[in-house]
C-alpha cells in the first residue's frame, strides 16, 4: 500500500484531480436522469394536457424529478406558468 | 432522406468548425452528397475554414427569409466533389433562425443530400438549440480539459431533452464523442485527462481522437479542411473518424506518446 501508492499518486499528476472533480459535477446531473421511472414521459404529457385545459403553457413548462434519500422517494414537480397568465 | 448530424460542444474554441469542415469533406470524399451548414448567425467562420469566404453571396438566413433559394445560396466546394457549404449570415440578429424556416430548409436539402452537417455555435442559446433540434446524430467535440468536459455533459443533457426526437418520443439522438487537441505526451505525464478518463465521465461511444497538431492551424490559415492534409496526424485521425462513422472498423491511432518506454520513464520528471 505505502510506497507503491505514493509512487502512483505522484505519477498521476493533475489529471487525476481533474477527473475526480469532473466526476462530482457530472454525476450530479446524471443522477437527475437516466434512472427516471418509465412512466415519466407519459405522466409529463398527461400533466401538460390537463394544464392546457386552463392555461396556455409551453412544451417545457412541466419539469419533473425524482429525489431519492434512502427509502424515501420524492416526486418533484415544477410547473412554469406564462407571465400574463400567472397574474390572473 | 438525408441523415442530419449536429457538431456541437457547448464550449467555444474546442474545434467544432474544424471538425464539421473535415467531417463533411470526409463524407463527401467517400462519395456521399453532403452539405455543411453554419448555424453561427452573426459570427460566421465555416466559410473561412472551408476557404470559400469570397464566394458567399447569399446565406442561410437569406434562404429562410426567401430572399434567395437554395440553389443560389449553396456554395460548391472546389476541391471535393459532392460537397456544398451553406454560410451563416454575418449581420442579422439571431432570431432570424425560425423553427419553421430551419425545418423547411432542412427538409428541402433532405431531398437532395445524403448527409446534412450542422455546425453549431458555442453556448446553449437559441442558435445552438436550433442546430441540434432536428439532428439524428451528434458529434460532441470535447477537449481533454475540465470546462470542456463539463460543458459537453450539459450538451448531452440537452440532446436528450430538447431535440425534436426527444419531443416526439422517437429514438434518441445518437451521440458520438470526438476528443480533440489530444496531447499524448501530456497524458503520459499525467497532466492531461486521458481518453479513458473522458469516456468514463461522459459515458458515450468514442468516434475519434484528434491529436494536437500544427496542421490544424496551417489548414485553417489556408482555408482548407485539415482532413485533406493526409500527411498530418490530425488529417489522418479525421479520416479514421469518418471511416468509423460510415461503419468501418479502424483502431484508434496517435494515443501513444511517441517516446518509447525509456523516454517515458526518464522524460517524465523533466
TrEMBL record, chain A:
Belongs to the MinE family. The keyword 4Fe-4S does not apply. One of its GO terms (biological process) is cell division. The keyword Cell cycle applies. Prevents the cell division inhibition by proteins MinC and MinD at internal division sites while permitting inhibition at polar sites. This ensures cell division at the proper site by restricting the formation of a division septum at the midpoint of the long axis of the cell. This is Cell division topological specificity factor. Pfam families: MinE. Keywords: Cell cycle, Cell division.
